[in-house]
Amino acid sequence: MSDLLAAIDYRPRLPQRRDRGIGLVGAGGIVQYGHLPAYKQAGFNVVGITDLNLDRAHRVAAEHGIPRVFDDLDALIEDDAIEIVDIAVYPWEQLSIIERVCVAKRHSLCQKPLSDRYEDAVRAVNVAHAADVKLAVNQQMRWDAGIRYSKVLIEQGWIGTPTYASIQVHTQTDWSLWPWIYDGERIEVLFHSIHYLDSLRYLLGDPERVFVSGSRSPGETTHAETRTITIWEYPTELRALVDVNHGTWHDDRYATFRIEGTDGVVKGTIGLLYDYPKGRPDTIEFWSTKHYPHTWIRPTLESLWIPDAFAGPMASLMCSIEDGGAPETNGADNLVTLQAVFAAYRSMAEGRAVALAEISEGH
């Protein structure tokens, strides 16, 4: 058993060079608790940071040993020491920053969602392509240990052909941490389940149609969705379910994933969402008719979604600079994730299944 399990390497592929200069745009909580700890652990080179709140930028720089604080974006992108601009701002602010970064011929790692408007996301991808620079999106859940391990199991044939998958998250979200999200017109899919949709694409491929029903818990003041049930239909018999409730008031809360195939099953927990934001490592267990039949295998996973998975998108971007390929979460790929997101909102609005192909510029 040890030889087969040893071949399951779910860790991110790291670049040969880890010293490429990174400039951070944004000094908010996700930068402090996600990006910077992961980059330090991976040995990446953060050269400088800027933020509209320069006092916060100086504080974060001091806490994390960042050498420089730039007065503004222009000063950051004009510095020759910076090759990659790591953008962590509100989605509606991102396009204008990307355009300036591309003019300066810098590569970019963009926050998710890439935009709150599909046409702006397309514009961002096209601008980067025209400038011949790399653009990746920080869909870091693909590098969460349980998801990554499951992908390797699928690729190595442990569970055969996938036939069903689910991600189910019932939690109590403290929206006071993100009042700008809770006060918006779109909440759950655009800012939370987008992680699950992108991860399912990574694991299973792209669906043909999506159906989504959204609602709220009793007493909520928002008019947007905080509970969703999503069904993905594939051209084959494969189906996927995403079931999310942010208003679980009792203590029976859970965050699970499951993938069934013709030859086995893999299931586990998303550890971060147990006692968030402290969290715990993911768990995973799998069963296969091909290897060690009818034996449940339960490897120990040690990393956390936040911060550990945040090394993945940056590492992939650096590898693509080295080898001339595309980052795993490149902009063009992410447009398909956004098609799934905006198809979800059209489905909720119109009460029908929506094909991803229906989502395009101007439609």
Fill in the keyword field for this structure.
363 residues, alpha/beta, Rossmann fold, Dihydrodipicolinate Reductase, domain 2, eight-stranded mixed beta sheet, six-stranded parallel beta sheet, 11 helices
According to CATH, the fold-level topology of the largest domain is: Dihydrodipicolinate Reductase, domain 2
Profile the largest sheet: 8 strands, mixed
Note the run of SSEs as H and E: HEHEHEHEHEHEHEHHEEEEEEHHE
Q: What is the CATH C-level name of the largest domain?
A: Alpha Beta
Which class best fits the helix and strand makeup? Answer: alpha/beta
Word description of this protein:
The protein is an alpha/beta fold. Helices cover 35% and strands 21% of the residues. It has helices at residues 2-6, 29-42, 54-64, 73-77, 91-103, 118-131, 145-155, 179-182, 188-204, 311-323, 331-350; strands spanning 21-25, 45-50, 68-69, 84-87, 107-110, 135-137, 162-170, 209-215, 227-233, 239-245, 254-261, 264-269, 283-288, 354-355. The strands form two sheets. It has an eight-stranded mixed β-sheet with strand order 13-12-11-7-10-9-8-14. Strand 1 (21-25), helix 2 and strand 2 form a beta-alpha-beta unit. The N and C termini lie far apart (52 Å). The mean pLDDT is 97.
